[in-house]
């Protein structure tokens, strides 16, 4: 036994622990911050970060996750948080598995003291925004629709010329760009047909056929070899025919896409018209749009914010999913691990249970549970589930329950949120000039249900404003007949129910918004401004049509002309090939006849020699 | 440089007479196991502890580790194949399964093809290698040592200033 050796071991172990004790906190903190920031595309920062090697306990006093779209705001932040990682999964498989997290001081959308901008390294840069973000954009666009319209200021004496001078008519540019595309496609195919070696091959086949002079053949062997040669030529011609056919097919596919684009021209014209109508602040006077004008901005605006959180969850969810195509490399001297059981087949990161507490922007103290946040739900075997709720001293309730499920092929997010009992006193129900009155009393209740399966979205928002009384007095006397009619209509209403449906269950995204007062408003508008609106719309439509008239027909003619030119080239090639087929077949026939003739001559010669007719 | 020289001299001294043949062979065996198997393995921690604690020759263990690391680099594909064969033995699957489920066994990374392939190879080799190394040391001392001392390289080495300094320092240190 060597005493020096034992002391050396003890000293080494002591040094290792001391170094780890002093170094790990900062090292782990900076690494976790960096990796999380890359994933979040904005800063993720910890304050008071501590890591204990002895019991694998992690703790922080504050965590801020910056919002990448507004870097002076946090998507969320937490207060003091503490958890312990499981020892064996970490040591044996580098898996961070946490059974219980106590997360306090959770708050959404808090202000930051410093800019949360983070420059994502190029190799880590993210791809295009996903489906849910596109829905967010559409919903946000619909939220704005009619919201800015001043119904009370609509007049029929619209100056269309000055309006159209301001409207950017885009159909012209788009048609020009499409025309350039058609020209480019034409040039490409023109060059393809010009440079194809089919013509050279046809010439070569011609030359070969001309070189076979059947009448000069005296030797049957020569005839047989020429028949073989002609058979090969026949195969070559068949191959040419297939190539020409395939060229034609590719050309037609290529041109087919421009055909679809031409049908878009009507939509472009409609877009231009709608832009002009929007600029003139003319509403579509139907019941649907009245609902959007009255409540769209508030209701759909909030809905778009909820959707952004869902989009964020899906974005993180999909970013975690590894590629199946990755092939397993065996680094030298590392071998392959055999996994005899699924004991360590765990997600790399798995928070099984988070006990969360905090408050909302409106000061409701919330608490709840979020379970199974993991980077690989298939391995965890569980989706993310959350049940959060709370109430403030005024009995305003908030509850949020849902599930983000990425276990199957199609990702699914579903949740239900209820926010009820909040006061509406001294607020306005709508930003629209149709409903500019403050409320003296009122209670609000919002219920949102959302179910997204891959690219299929089905959601509903119910908003009930009850115990309503409007403060007409402070708004003064009605300024026009429309106002008088509206006041009369809503004075007798003490409850307003609004339902918004956002779905694409039966096709493209539909955003529908109805309330129990739409009809009241519609009647009031019909009695007052509907004629003026219709007249102004007619004028704008006529002017847009005048500016883009004939564009579609002109472009379709241009396309047909170019298409015909290419088809002519194809037909010429096809004709040449057909001729070659005929010539080859003719030559083959001649050779067969010559072969027969020589065979007969040979038979006769033999018969003459041996005197036997066989 | 001094350190290398020191170990070289110690090595020669060990081979010559200072250490017993068993201590030298023991060092070589333990160094061989570390060299043949992946260094960052749990069993190597215990082997290092054994080298430090037992009275085996550390210099020889180091030399053996370096030599067999080179051998292992070349033999790695063979260890992998042997490991695959071992881990796929029909009759062992249940045992492997329960070992895999036991954290302490799992810590040895026995389920890795190169770890198990190289470790079993090293362990099996060490049984005949110990007496062989021991005999080699004895044979060296008996038949080769005197000749080696006369080699021009060794003579030249002994005549260098560095060697003189080393000898002086060793004397002073006792």
Write the layout of secondary structure elements.
The complex is a heterodimer of chains A (614) and B (174).
Chain A: H1 3-40, E1 44-47, E2 50-52, E3 57-60, E4 62-67, E5 70-78, E6 81-85, H2 87-93, E7 96-111, H3 131-144, H4 160-166, H5 171-195, H6 198-211, H7 220-263, H8 265-279, H9 287-320, E8 349-359, E9 365-374, H10 377-380, E10 384-391, E11 397-405, E12 412-423, E13 439-453, E14 456-470, H11 481-491, E15 496-503, E16 510-515, H12 518-528, H13 530-548, H14 551-610
Parallel strand pairs in A: 7-8
Antiparallel strand pairs in A: 1-4, 2-3, 3-6, 4-5, 5-7, 6-7, 8-9, 9-10, 10-11, 11-12, 12-13, 13-14, 14-15, 15-16
Helix pairs in contact in A: 3-9, 5-7, 5-14, 6-7, 6-14, 7-14, 8-13, 9-12, 11-12
Chain B: H1 2-16, H2 21-36, H3 42-53, H4 58-87, H5 93-101, H6 103-107, H7 113-150, H8 152-158, H9 161-173
Description:
The complex is a heterodimer of chains A (614) and B (174). By secondary structure, chain A is an alpha+beta fold. The relative contact order of chain A is 0.12. Among the domains of chain A are: 173 residues, no CATH class; 165 residues, no CATH class. Helices cover 49% and strands 23% of the residues of chain A. By secondary structure, chain B is an all-alpha fold. Chain B has one domain. In chain B, 83% of the residues lie in helices and 0% in strands. Chain B is elongated, with a radius of gyration of 20 Å. The interface between A and B is medium-sized, with 22 and 31 residues.
Largest sheet of chain B: none
Q: Mean of the pLDDT scores of chain B?
A: 83
Radius of gyration of chain A: 39 Å
Q: Low-confidence parts of chain B lasting 5 or more residues at pLDDT below 50?
A: none
Helix-strand makeup class of chain B = mainly alpha
What is the number of E strands of chain A? 16
Q: What percent of the residues of chain A sit in helical stretches (DSSP H or I)?
A: 40-55%
How much of the sequence lies in strands of chain B comes to: under 5%
Helix content of chain B: over 70%
């Amino acid at each position: 036994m060597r005493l020096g050796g034992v002391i050396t071991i003890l000293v080494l172990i002591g040094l290792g622990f001391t170094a780890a004790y002093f170094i790990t906190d900062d090292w782990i903190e900076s690494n976790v911050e960096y990796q999380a920031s890359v994933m979040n595309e904005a800063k993720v920062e910890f304050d008071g970060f501590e890591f204990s090697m002895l019991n694998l306990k992690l703790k922080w006093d504050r965590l801020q996750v910056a919002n990448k779209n507004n870097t002076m705001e946090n998507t969320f932040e937490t207060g003091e948080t503490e958890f312990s990682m499981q020892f064996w999964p970490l040591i044996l498989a580098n898996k961070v598995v946490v059974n219980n997290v106590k997360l306090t001081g959770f708050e959404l959308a808090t202000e930051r003291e410093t800019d949360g901008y983070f420059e994502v390294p190029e190799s880590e840069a993210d791809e295009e925004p996903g489906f849910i973000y596109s829905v967010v954009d559409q919903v946000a666009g619909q939220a704005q629709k009619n919201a800015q319209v001043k119904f009370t200021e609509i007049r029929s004496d619209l100056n269309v010329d000055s309006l159209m001078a301001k409207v950017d008519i885009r159909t012209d540019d788009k048609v020009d760009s499409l025309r350039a595309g058609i020209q480019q496609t034409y040039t490409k195919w023109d060059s393809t047909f010009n440079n194809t070696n089919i013509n050279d091959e046809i010439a070569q086949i011609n030359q070969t056929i001309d070189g076979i002079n059947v009448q000069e053949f005296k030797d049957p062997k020569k005839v047989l070899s020429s028949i073989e040669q002609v058979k090969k030529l026949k195969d070559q011609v068949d191959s040419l025919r297939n190539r020409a056919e395939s060229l034609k097919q590719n050309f037609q596919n290529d041109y087919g896409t421009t055909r679809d684009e031409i049908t878009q021209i009507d939509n472009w014209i409609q877009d231009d018209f709608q832009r002009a109508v929007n600029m003139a602040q003319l509403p579509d006077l139907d019941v649907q749009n009245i609902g959007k004008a009255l409540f769209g901005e508030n209701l759909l605006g909030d809905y778009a914010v909820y959707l952004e959180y869902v989009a964020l969850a899906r974005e993180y969810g999909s970013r975690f999913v590894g590629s199946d195509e990755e092939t397993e490399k065996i680094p030298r001297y590392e071998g392959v691990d055999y996994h005899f059981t699924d004991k360590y087949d765990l997600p790399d990161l798995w928070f099984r249970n988070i006990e969360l507490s905090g408050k909302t922007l409106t000061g409701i103290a919330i608490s709840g549970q979020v379970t199974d946040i993991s980077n690989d739900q298939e391995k965890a075997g569980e989706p993310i589930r959350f049940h959060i709720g709370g109430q403030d001293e005024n009995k305003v309730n908030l509850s949020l329950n849902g599930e983000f499920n990425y276990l199957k092929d199609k990702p699914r997010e579903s949740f239900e949120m209820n926010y009820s009992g909040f006061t509406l006193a001294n607020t306005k129900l709508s930003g629209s000039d149709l409903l500019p009155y403050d409320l003296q009393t009122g209670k609000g209740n919002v219920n949102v249900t959302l179910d997204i399966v891959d690219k299929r979205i089905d959601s509903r928002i119910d908003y009930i404003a009850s115990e309503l009384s409007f403060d007409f007095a402070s708004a003064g006397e009605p300024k026009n007949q429309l106002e008088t009619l509206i006041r009369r209509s809503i004075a007798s209403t003490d409850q307003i129910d609004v339902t918004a449906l956002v779905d694409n269950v039966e096709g493209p995204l539909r955003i529908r918004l109805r309330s129990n007062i739409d009809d009241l408003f519609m009647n009031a508008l019909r009695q007052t401004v509907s004629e003026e609106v219709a007249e102004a719309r007619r004028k704008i439509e006529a002017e847009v049509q005048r500016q883009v008239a004939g564009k579609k027909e002109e472009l379709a003619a241009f396309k047909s002309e170019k298409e015909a030119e290419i088809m002519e080239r194809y037909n010429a090639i096809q004709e040449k090939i057909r001729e070659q087929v005929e010539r080859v077949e003719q030559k083959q026939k001649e050779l067969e006849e010559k072969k027969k003739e020589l065979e007969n001559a040979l038979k006769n010669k033999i018969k003459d020699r041996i005197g036997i007719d066989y | 440089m001094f350190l290398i020289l020191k170990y070289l001299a110690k090595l020669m001294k060990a081979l010559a007479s200072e250490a017993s043949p068993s201590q030298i062979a023991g060092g070589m065996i333990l160094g061989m196991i570390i060299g043949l198997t992946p260094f960052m393995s749990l069993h190597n921690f215990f082997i290092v502890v054994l080298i430090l604690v037992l009275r085996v020759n550390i210099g020889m263990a180091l030399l053996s580790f370096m030599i067999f690391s080179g051998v292992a680099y070349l033999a790695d594909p063979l260890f992998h194949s042997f490991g695959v064969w071992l881990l796929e033995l029909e009759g062992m699957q249940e045992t492997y399964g329960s070992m895999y489920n036991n954290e302490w066994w799992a810590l040895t990374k026995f389920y890795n093809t190169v770890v198990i392939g190289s470790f079993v190879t090293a362990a099996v080799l060490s049984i005949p290698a110990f007496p062989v190394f021991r005999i080699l040391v004895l044979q060296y001392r008996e038949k080769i040592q005197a000749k080696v001392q006369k080699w021009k390289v060794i003579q030249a080495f002994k005549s260098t200033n560095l060697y003189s300094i080393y000898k002086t320092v060793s004397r002073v240190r006792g």
